[in-house]
Amino acid sequence: MEHTEKNLEFLENDLKYLGFDASLHTELKEMLGTEADLFELLYRATVQNEPIEALLFFNRSDPEGYFFFSNYKLTVGGRQHTFYVFKGRGVTIKEGFNLLKGRAVFKQRKAKNGQLYNEWLELDLDVKEENGFKANIYPESHGFDLSPLIDSMLIDTPSPNWDRSMLIRSLEKGNLQTAFIRQDGSNRKVLLSANPRERSITIHEPGPVQWEKPEETKHGDDIENALKHKRLRSKKLKDITQ
Fold first, then answer.
1. What is the pLDDT of residue 8?
2. Cα(42)–Cα(24) distance, rounded to whole angstroms?
3. How far, in Å, CA of 83 to CA of 71, rounded?
């Protein structure tokens, strides 16, 4: 019994870290008490008013050993991708949702030698592979950095309770983040998303705009003119929350 309780405790800690709520507790505890060496749990939830479904896989190599959470298959709007878990760490379910919506996510990884490294992850939704979609990885050497890009924009955070670091962290999680751009003496509400592939920030309002850090020697264009020149026509996106 003590063995099962310890296994349950660390698995629930892993699930909590990855964004799964406590609704799986009863089924998880029940399955840990069986003689099976692997099992699956079905998880359903709603993210930003959109239903999602995840099939979670657990296994153990030793009949007397602990079960581990190995991966989950996430389905969002007809798109499906498998995300792997290593020692309780990996892509959270909210990050998985954002990836399947076509946005990129920033992750810190640990190499086999224990060294930490950073990378951006993006799914190519046009290229299917065995486990879902092709994953594009952008390491630090790719040169994508949100901080100087935000410095080059007249950005106000979505509320007085937010600071610049919170805005950056939200974009790193792959969120389509509300913010304000100061223009013509007023604040215009926009939605921002990180775009590591183009080393830019995408501005959604009312059509997508790629924002790249302006060159100091390039015609002296200010931000207002740059936005006017780069604005693309598109249907207006509805507001969503963080």
1. 96
2. 8
3. 6
